[in-house]
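Journal club side-thread
Mid-discussion, someone asked how the predicted structure for our own chain would compare to the paper's figures. Pasting it here so we can look after the session.
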Amino acid sequence: MYHIAVAGNIGSGKTTLTELLSKHYTWEAQYEDIDDNPYLNDFYEDMQRWSFNLQIYFLNSRFNQIIDIRKRGKTVIQDRTIYEDAYIFAPNLHSLGLMSTRDFENYFALFNLMSSLVQPPDLVIYLRASVPTLVNQIQKRGRKYEAGIRLDYLQRLNERYEAWVETYNMGKLMIVDVDDLQFTESREALSKVIDRIDAELYGLF
């Protein structure tokens, strides 16, 4: 039984890869709560007003997902980790002045408590993608609330992802360069990703 998690910036291909790997390995998939998220549209309309609410919603949702994953006793692949909001999205909102220091400290204290109660994933797959690749994939999927995402916002998130990955030591980490391995477009690229996952999990080369 493994807990696999796919990490990466907005538009990096997390949901697509989660779906493809779920089908290939017959793993159960846990997706990010986008469609039923009651804060997402409001957040993109007014980030300063809704940032804390949104981050708390995601924290609670992912914490419950992890509890559920460990109870199931089967291999599950999760779309985005509990760590990304805490180390990338919330600090970014705070540094941009879109979340107050009081709210950020409250959020981070709650994250520290929750993360201490759960096991990290057995394997994190980080999808590294340049801003042009992110923009291209965001435009392709055409979500209305993502239309106004700024390039500098995506770049700041990328920088935070790289800093997080550099220090991540909670388990196995596999980096997929999406600019070079476009698994959404190429079966050959997907096969290369799968070969690397086999090597990480099962020692198959």
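Post-session note: The radius of gyration is 17 Å.
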